[in-house]
Amino acid sequence: xxxxxxDYKKSPQDREWDASCRKARMEAIxxxxxxxxxxxxVTGWLLKKGYPDSIVDFVIKELVAxxxxxxxxxxxxxxxxxxxxxxxxxxxxxxxxxxxGIDKETARKxxxxxxxxxxxxxxxxxxxxxxxxxxxxxxIHELDNFEQLKLKQRIFRFLTSRGYSTEVALRAMxxxxxxxxxDEE
Length: 185
Prior knowledge:
Layout: H1 12-32, H2 39-48, H3 53-66, H4 71-81, H5 90-99, H6 104-114, H7 120-138, H8 145-161, H9 166-184
Helix pairs in contact: 1-3, 2-3, 4-6, 5-6, 7-9, 8-9
């Protein structure tokens, strides 16, 4: 059934606002295209195009309601992609999500779901160490004390640069070194 328009009953300002919303919506859908974009990126893009805040808010809410924008889904995909050699801490992952345009509350919620295991951060850092430094870690006991210290410092700096806390970095490094010592016995 064809929808009958009642635009003649609206004021000129309301018709202009509706036209602006339709135009902004079409531009947003064109910007999104076939790729996934965060609501923050689309909001920034529409604001840069010169649309007022009220129209941008309306269009974003409409696109979220219909499922064209889904920050939670995109955050989950991004968090899943940051494993193994690309592993990060909770804080680094949170900052990455916010920087990509996902609102802070959604980012917090997705981080808590993704990092639901208390030891996930530690196990991720251990896995990262084993992947990144496996050849060097296997020969650590053949190095003199100064070279061992340099390697440990490099490992520690590497983990902290990925956003892991000093406690997690130390625990991961000690766990990997204990495993190596145990394997050699």
